[in-house]
Amino acid sequence: MPTTQKPRKAILTQEQLSQFQESQCHKDIAAYIESLNASVTGVKLSDECPQSPGITAILALLDRVEKLVAEIPPVDNKASRFGNPAFRTFYDRVLEISHDLHASLPNLPEDAIPEVATYLEESWGNKARLDYGSGMELNFLCWLFCLERLGVVQDEDHTALVIRVFWRYIGVMRKLQSTYWLEPAGSHGVWGLDDYHFLPFLFGSAQLRGHKYIRPKSIHDNELVDEYAKDYMYLACIKFINSIKTASLRWHSPMLDDISAVKTWDKVNQGMVKMYLAEVLGKLPVIQHFLFGSILTWEGEFPEQHDESKCGHDHSKPGVLGVGGWGDCCGIPIPSVFGAAEAEKAHGGVPLSGPSIRPIPFD
Protein backbone atom coordinates (compact mmCIF):
# COMPACT_ATOMS: atom_id res chain seq x y z
CA MET A 1 0.00 0.00 0.00
CA PRO A 2 1.28 3.53 -0.78
CA THR A 3 2.28 5.88 2.00
CA THR A 4 -0.78 6.76 4.04
CA GLN A 5 -2.23 10.21 3.68
CA LYS A 6 -4.92 12.30 5.29
CA PRO A 7 -8.07 11.88 3.18
CA ARG A 8 -9.30 14.97 1.38
CA LYS A 9 -11.93 16.09 -1.08
CA ALA A 10 -11.32 16.10 -4.81
CA ILE A 11 -14.70 16.36 -6.54
CA LEU A 12 -16.02 19.83 -7.32
CA THR A 13 -17.62 19.45 -10.75
CA GLN A 14 -19.92 17.16 -12.67
CA GLU A 15 -16.96 16.18 -14.84
CA GLN A 16 -14.99 15.07 -11.79
CA LEU A 17 -18.02 13.12 -10.59
CA SER A 18 -18.12 11.32 -13.94
CA GLN A 19 -14.42 10.57 -13.56
CA PHE A 20 -15.11 9.09 -10.12
CA GLN A 21 -17.90 6.92 -11.51
CA GLU A 22 -15.43 5.38 -13.97
CA SER A 23 -12.71 4.89 -11.36
CA GLN A 24 -11.42 1.81 -9.56
CA CYS A 25 -12.40 3.45 -6.28
CA HIS A 26 -16.06 3.55 -7.35
CA LYS A 27 -15.86 -0.06 -8.55
CA ASP A 28 -14.34 -1.13 -5.22
CA ILE A 29 -17.06 0.56 -3.17
CA ALA A 30 -19.85 -0.84 -5.34
CA ALA A 31 -18.34 -4.33 -5.13
CA TYR A 32 -18.00 -4.00 -1.35
CA ILE A 33 -21.67 -3.09 -1.01
CA GLU A 34 -22.64 -6.03 -3.21
CA SER A 35 -20.51 -8.41 -1.12
CA LEU A 36 -21.93 -7.18 2.19
CA ASN A 37 -25.41 -7.33 0.69
CA ALA A 38 -24.95 -10.95 -0.44
CA SER A 39 -23.56 -11.95 2.95
CA VAL A 40 -26.84 -11.23 4.75
CA THR A 41 -29.33 -12.71 2.29
CA GLY A 42 -31.82 -14.59 4.44
CA VAL A 43 -29.90 -13.79 7.64
CA LYS A 44 -31.68 -12.50 10.77
CA LEU A 45 -30.20 -9.94 13.13
CA SER A 46 -30.64 -12.52 15.88
CA ASP A 47 -28.77 -15.28 14.02
CA GLU A 48 -25.44 -16.52 15.29
CA CYS A 49 -22.42 -15.70 13.15
CA PRO A 50 -18.65 -15.95 13.53
CA GLN A 51 -17.18 -12.95 15.38
CA SER A 52 -13.46 -12.37 14.89
CA PRO A 53 -11.28 -10.33 17.30
CA GLY A 54 -11.56 -7.44 14.85
CA ILE A 55 -15.36 -7.47 15.05
CA THR A 56 -15.25 -7.63 18.85
CA ALA A 57 -12.85 -4.66 18.98
CA ILE A 58 -14.98 -2.57 16.61
CA LEU A 59 -18.10 -3.24 18.70
CA ALA A 60 -16.22 -2.15 21.84
CA LEU A 61 -15.17 1.03 20.02
CA LEU A 62 -18.80 1.81 19.14
CA ASP A 63 -19.83 1.18 22.75
CA ARG A 64 -17.26 3.73 23.85
CA VAL A 65 -18.55 6.32 21.41
CA GLU A 66 -22.11 5.77 22.57
CA LYS A 67 -21.09 6.33 26.20
CA LEU A 68 -20.00 9.85 25.25
CA VAL A 69 -23.64 10.72 24.58
CA ALA A 70 -24.56 10.06 28.20
CA GLU A 71 -21.61 12.20 29.29
CA ILE A 72 -22.64 15.11 27.05
CA PRO A 73 -26.34 15.87 27.52
CA PRO A 74 -28.13 18.26 25.17
CA VAL A 75 -28.24 21.90 26.19
CA ASP A 76 -31.58 23.55 26.90
CA ASN A 77 -32.72 24.34 23.38
CA LYS A 78 -36.46 23.79 23.65
CA ALA A 79 -37.35 26.85 21.62
CA SER A 80 -35.72 25.34 18.55
CA ARG A 81 -36.77 22.43 16.34
CA PHE A 82 -33.26 22.27 14.93
CA GLY A 83 -29.97 20.67 15.94
CA ASN A 84 -28.73 20.91 19.50
CA PRO A 85 -25.35 22.68 19.93
CA ALA A 86 -24.18 20.03 22.41
CA PHE A 87 -23.52 17.81 19.39
CA ARG A 88 -20.45 19.96 18.69
CA THR A 89 -19.05 19.03 22.10
CA PHE A 90 -19.70 15.36 21.35
CA TYR A 91 -17.98 15.71 17.97
CA ASP A 92 -14.91 17.35 19.53
CA ARG A 93 -14.72 14.64 22.18
CA VAL A 94 -14.73 11.93 19.51
CA LEU A 95 -11.82 13.70 17.81
CA GLU A 96 -9.93 13.84 21.12
CA ILE A 97 -10.14 10.08 21.68
CA SER A 98 -10.04 9.03 18.03
CA HIS A 99 -6.42 7.88 18.08
CA ASP A 100 -6.94 5.81 21.22
CA LEU A 101 -10.09 4.27 19.74
CA HIS A 102 -8.19 3.14 16.68
CA ALA A 103 -5.14 1.99 18.63
CA SER A 104 -7.44 -0.60 20.23
CA LEU A 105 -8.12 -2.30 16.87
CA PRO A 106 -6.03 -5.40 16.11
CA ASN A 107 -3.59 -5.32 13.20
CA LEU A 108 -4.14 -1.65 12.43
CA PRO A 109 -0.75 -0.06 11.64
CA GLU A 110 0.03 2.99 13.75
CA ASP A 111 0.90 5.10 10.73
CA ALA A 112 -2.47 4.30 9.10
CA ILE A 113 -4.54 5.64 11.99
CA PRO A 114 -4.75 9.30 10.87
CA GLU A 115 -6.05 8.26 7.45
CA VAL A 116 -8.50 5.62 8.61
CA ALA A 117 -9.73 7.64 11.58
CA THR A 118 -10.87 10.48 9.32
CA TYR A 119 -13.65 8.32 7.89
CA LEU A 120 -14.98 7.39 11.31
CA GLU A 121 -14.75 10.97 12.56
CA GLU A 122 -16.82 12.13 9.59
CA SER A 123 -19.45 9.42 10.00
CA TRP A 124 -21.30 10.95 12.98
CA GLY A 125 -22.66 14.09 11.35
CA ASN A 126 -21.62 17.61 10.42
CA LYS A 127 -20.34 19.71 13.31
CA ALA A 128 -21.13 23.08 11.75
CA ARG A 129 -24.58 22.31 10.31
CA LEU A 130 -25.67 19.87 13.05
CA ASP A 131 -27.00 17.50 10.41
CA TYR A 132 -26.62 13.95 9.18
CA GLY A 133 -27.29 12.22 5.89
CA SER A 134 -26.31 9.48 3.48
CA GLY A 135 -22.85 10.98 2.93
CA MET A 136 -21.96 10.47 6.59
CA GLU A 137 -23.35 6.94 6.45
CA LEU A 138 -21.11 6.39 3.41
CA ASN A 139 -18.11 7.47 5.48
CA PHE A 140 -18.82 4.66 7.93
CA LEU A 141 -18.95 2.19 5.06
CA CYS A 142 -15.61 3.57 3.81
CA TRP A 143 -14.17 3.15 7.31
CA LEU A 144 -15.12 -0.53 7.29
CA PHE A 145 -13.66 -0.89 3.80
CA CYS A 146 -10.35 0.59 4.96
CA LEU A 147 -10.24 -1.63 8.04
CA GLU A 148 -10.70 -4.66 5.83
CA ARG A 149 -7.97 -3.56 3.43
CA LEU A 150 -5.63 -3.19 6.42
CA GLY A 151 -6.43 -6.60 7.89
CA VAL A 152 -8.47 -5.62 10.95
CA VAL A 153 -11.34 -7.69 9.51
CA GLN A 154 -11.53 -10.16 6.62
CA ASP A 155 -13.97 -11.35 3.95
CA GLU A 156 -15.38 -13.97 6.29
CA ASP A 157 -16.43 -11.18 8.66
CA HIS A 158 -18.91 -9.68 6.19
CA THR A 159 -22.05 -11.10 7.78
CA ALA A 160 -20.96 -9.85 11.21
CA LEU A 161 -19.97 -6.49 9.73
CA VAL A 162 -23.58 -5.99 8.64
CA ILE A 163 -25.73 -7.59 11.33
CA ARG A 164 -23.44 -6.76 14.27
CA VAL A 165 -21.21 -3.79 13.44
CA PHE A 166 -23.28 -1.79 10.96
CA TRP A 167 -26.48 -2.35 12.90
CA ARG A 168 -24.71 -1.27 16.10
CA TYR A 169 -23.62 1.90 14.30
CA ILE A 170 -27.24 2.58 13.33
CA GLY A 171 -28.20 2.20 16.99
CA VAL A 172 -25.58 4.74 18.03
CA MET A 173 -26.73 7.09 15.27
CA ARG A 174 -30.36 6.83 16.36
CA LYS A 175 -29.23 7.86 19.83
CA LEU A 176 -27.30 10.82 18.43
CA GLN A 177 -30.21 11.86 16.24
CA SER A 178 -32.72 11.68 19.06
CA THR A 179 -30.46 13.26 21.70
CA TYR A 180 -29.07 16.14 19.66
CA TRP A 181 -31.96 16.48 17.19
CA LEU A 182 -29.63 16.23 14.22
CA GLU A 183 -31.20 17.70 11.11
CA PRO A 184 -31.52 15.66 7.92
CA ALA A 185 -28.79 16.69 5.47
CA GLY A 186 -30.33 18.29 2.39
CA SER A 187 -33.98 19.10 1.97
CA HIS A 188 -35.79 15.79 1.87
CA GLY A 189 -33.96 13.13 3.79
CA VAL A 190 -32.99 10.17 1.62
CA TRP A 191 -35.77 10.56 -0.95
CA GLY A 192 -38.51 9.32 1.31
CA LEU A 193 -36.80 6.22 2.67
CA ASP A 194 -35.77 7.73 5.99
CA ASP A 195 -34.75 11.18 7.14
CA TYR A 196 -31.19 9.99 7.67
CA HIS A 197 -30.33 6.52 6.38
CA PHE A 198 -30.23 4.44 3.23
CA LEU A 199 -28.11 1.34 3.78
CA PRO A 200 -30.33 -0.31 6.44
CA PHE A 201 -33.03 -0.55 3.78
CA LEU A 202 -30.58 -1.96 1.24
CA PHE A 203 -29.13 -4.58 3.60
CA GLY A 204 -32.52 -5.06 5.23
CA SER A 205 -34.19 -5.97 1.96
CA ALA A 206 -31.41 -8.54 1.38
CA GLN A 207 -32.21 -10.14 4.73
CA LEU A 208 -35.80 -10.63 3.62
CA ARG A 209 -35.07 -12.10 0.19
CA GLY A 210 -36.94 -15.38 -0.20
CA HIS A 211 -38.85 -15.04 3.07
CA LYS A 212 -41.75 -17.49 3.15
CA TYR A 213 -44.49 -15.05 4.15
CA ILE A 214 -43.15 -11.56 4.91
CA ARG A 215 -43.75 -9.56 1.73
CA PRO A 216 -42.90 -5.93 0.86
CA LYS A 217 -46.53 -4.99 1.55
CA SER A 218 -46.16 -6.41 5.07
CA ILE A 219 -44.73 -3.09 6.24
CA HIS A 220 -48.35 -1.94 6.57
CA ASP A 221 -49.10 -4.69 9.10
CA ASN A 222 -48.10 -3.08 12.41
CA GLU A 223 -48.36 -6.30 14.40
CA LEU A 224 -46.07 -8.13 12.03
CA VAL A 225 -43.63 -5.20 11.99
CA ASP A 226 -43.54 -5.14 15.78
CA GLU A 227 -42.97 -8.90 15.98
CA TYR A 228 -40.16 -9.12 13.43
CA ALA A 229 -38.39 -5.78 13.85
CA LYS A 230 -35.89 -7.50 16.14
CA ASP A 231 -34.83 -9.77 13.27
CA TYR A 232 -34.85 -7.56 10.19
CA MET A 233 -33.34 -4.11 9.63
CA TYR A 234 -35.98 -3.10 7.11
CA LEU A 235 -38.83 -3.74 9.53
CA ALA A 236 -36.89 -2.18 12.41
CA CYS A 237 -36.55 1.00 10.36
CA ILE A 238 -40.28 0.99 9.57
CA LYS A 239 -41.04 0.56 13.27
CA PHE A 240 -38.72 3.43 14.12
CA ILE A 241 -40.37 5.72 11.57
CA ASN A 242 -43.84 4.80 12.82
CA SER A 243 -42.77 5.51 16.39
CA ILE A 244 -41.84 9.14 15.74
CA LYS A 245 -44.16 10.23 12.93
CA THR A 246 -47.86 10.64 13.43
CA ALA A 247 -49.16 10.70 9.85
CA SER A 248 -49.53 7.75 7.53
CA LEU A 249 -46.56 6.16 5.77
CA ARG A 250 -47.94 7.47 2.48
CA TRP A 251 -47.65 11.04 3.73
CA HIS A 252 -44.21 11.12 5.34
CA SER A 253 -42.48 8.24 3.49
CA PRO A 254 -44.12 7.92 0.06
CA MET A 255 -41.11 6.15 -1.47
CA LEU A 256 -41.36 3.37 1.12
CA ASP A 257 -45.08 3.22 0.50
CA ASP A 258 -44.51 2.88 -3.25
CA ILE A 259 -41.84 0.19 -2.76
CA SER A 260 -44.29 -1.84 -0.67
CA ALA A 261 -46.23 -2.55 -3.87
CA VAL A 262 -43.25 -4.40 -5.39
CA LYS A 263 -43.95 -8.13 -5.53
CA THR A 264 -40.73 -9.61 -4.14
CA TRP A 265 -37.84 -8.69 -1.88
CA ASP A 266 -35.50 -9.72 -4.70
CA LYS A 267 -36.84 -6.84 -6.78
CA VAL A 268 -36.74 -4.47 -3.82
CA ASN A 269 -33.12 -5.35 -3.08
CA GLN A 270 -32.07 -5.01 -6.71
CA GLY A 271 -33.80 -1.64 -6.84
CA MET A 272 -32.10 -0.49 -3.64
CA VAL A 273 -28.65 -1.27 -5.05
CA LYS A 274 -29.43 0.60 -8.29
CA MET A 275 -30.86 3.49 -6.33
CA TYR A 276 -27.80 3.73 -4.10
CA LEU A 277 -25.46 3.82 -7.08
CA ALA A 278 -27.57 6.49 -8.76
CA GLU A 279 -28.67 8.65 -5.87
CA VAL A 280 -25.78 8.43 -3.42
CA LEU A 281 -22.63 7.44 -5.31
CA GLY A 282 -23.91 9.19 -8.42
CA LYS A 283 -24.95 12.58 -7.06
CA LEU A 284 -22.62 15.56 -6.80
CA PRO A 285 -24.26 17.00 -3.65
CA VAL A 286 -23.23 13.82 -1.82
CA ILE A 287 -19.98 12.85 -3.53
CA GLN A 288 -18.52 16.36 -3.42
CA HIS A 289 -17.83 15.51 0.24
CA PHE A 290 -16.19 12.14 -0.50
CA LEU A 291 -12.71 11.77 0.96
CA PHE A 292 -9.80 10.23 -0.93
CA GLY A 293 -6.57 8.92 0.59
CA SER A 294 -4.11 6.12 -0.13
CA ILE A 295 -6.71 3.34 0.24
CA LEU A 296 -9.70 4.94 -1.49
CA THR A 297 -7.72 6.76 -4.13
CA TRP A 298 -8.45 9.67 -6.46
CA GLU A 299 -6.97 9.01 -9.88
CA GLY A 300 -6.81 12.64 -11.00
CA GLU A 301 -5.19 15.83 -9.77
CA PHE A 302 -6.37 17.16 -6.43
CA PRO A 303 -7.67 20.74 -6.48
CA GLU A 304 -4.99 23.08 -5.13
CA GLN A 305 -7.36 24.33 -2.47
CA HIS A 306 -10.87 23.29 -1.54
CA ASP A 307 -12.99 26.13 -0.25
CA GLU A 308 -15.19 24.54 2.40
CA SER A 309 -17.62 27.47 2.10
CA LYS A 310 -18.40 26.49 -1.50
CA CYS A 311 -19.95 23.30 -2.75
CA GLY A 312 -18.59 23.46 -6.27
CA HIS A 313 -21.81 23.57 -8.24
CA ASP A 314 -24.34 26.06 -9.51
CA HIS A 315 -26.81 27.53 -7.03
CA SER A 316 -28.40 29.88 -9.56
CA LYS A 317 -30.97 27.34 -10.74
CA PRO A 318 -34.10 26.58 -8.73
CA GLY A 319 -33.74 23.62 -6.38
CA VAL A 320 -36.36 21.34 -4.93
CA LEU A 321 -37.33 24.03 -2.47
CA GLY A 322 -37.42 26.65 -5.20
CA VAL A 323 -34.60 28.68 -3.64
CA GLY A 324 -31.54 28.91 -5.78
CA GLY A 325 -30.62 25.27 -5.93
CA TRP A 326 -29.69 24.91 -2.28
CA GLY A 327 -32.37 22.35 -1.60
CA ASP A 328 -30.32 19.25 -2.35
CA CYS A 329 -27.09 19.81 -0.51
CA CYS A 330 -25.95 22.94 1.13
CA GLY A 331 -27.43 23.25 4.48
CA ILE A 332 -30.82 24.89 4.32
CA PRO A 333 -31.85 24.10 7.89
CA ILE A 334 -34.44 21.34 7.98
CA PRO A 335 -36.07 20.63 11.34
CA SER A 336 -34.97 17.48 13.08
CA VAL A 337 -37.55 14.72 12.75
CA PHE A 338 -37.64 14.70 16.57
CA GLY A 339 -38.12 18.46 16.74
CA ALA A 340 -40.80 18.25 14.08
CA ALA A 341 -42.54 15.47 16.00
CA GLU A 342 -42.67 17.66 19.11
CA ALA A 343 -44.05 20.53 17.05
CA GLU A 344 -46.68 18.26 15.51
CA LYS A 345 -47.81 17.21 18.98
CA ALA A 346 -48.29 20.86 19.79
CA HIS A 347 -50.52 21.16 16.71
CA GLY A 348 -52.66 18.16 17.51
CA GLY A 349 -50.62 15.70 15.48
CA VAL A 350 -51.06 17.52 12.17
CA PRO A 351 -47.94 17.41 9.96
CA LEU A 352 -46.51 20.86 9.36
CA SER A 353 -45.09 20.18 5.90
CA GLY A 354 -45.11 17.56 3.20
CA PRO A 355 -42.16 15.74 1.68
CA SER A 356 -40.46 16.59 -1.58
CA ILE A 357 -39.79 13.28 -3.30
CA ARG A 358 -38.05 12.30 -6.51
CA PRO A 359 -39.56 8.93 -7.44
CA ILE A 360 -37.29 6.15 -8.66
CA PRO A 361 -38.93 3.11 -10.28
CA PHE A 362 -38.28 -0.37 -8.91
CA ASP A 363 -38.70 -2.56 -11.94
The low-pLDDT segments are 187-191, 308-332, 346-361
Domain module tally: 1
Separation of the first and last Cα atoms: 41 Å
Fraction in beta strands: under 5%
Backbone CA Rg? 20 Å
Shape: globular
State the total count of DSSP E strands.
Answer: 4
SSE series: EHHHHHEHHEHHHHHHHEH
The biggest sheet, with number of strands, parallel, antiparallel or mixed sense and barrel status, is: 2 strands, antiparallel
Question: Helix tally?
Answer: 15
Strand order of the largest sheet: 1-4
What would you note in describing this structure?
It contains 15 helices and 4 strands. By secondary structure, it is mostly helical. The protein has one domain. The protein has a two-stranded antiparallel ribbon. Helix 5 packs antiparallel against helix 6. The radius of gyration is 20 Å and the shape is globular. The C terminus is likely disordered. InterPro entries: Phstyr_phstse_ac, PTPA_C_lid, PTPA_sf. One of its GO terms (cellular component) is cytoplasm.
Please render the helix and strand layout as text.
Elements lengths: L7 E2 L4 H8 L2 H16 L13 H19 L14 H18 L9 H9 L9 E2 L1 H16 L8 H23 L2 E2 L14 H9 L14 H7 L4 H12 L4 H4 L1 H6 L5 H15 L4 H4 L3 E2 L44 H10 L17
Parallel strand pairs: 2-3
Antiparallel strand pairs: 1-4
Helix pairs in contact: 2-7, 3-4, 3-7, 4-5, 5-6, 8-10, 8-13, 9-10
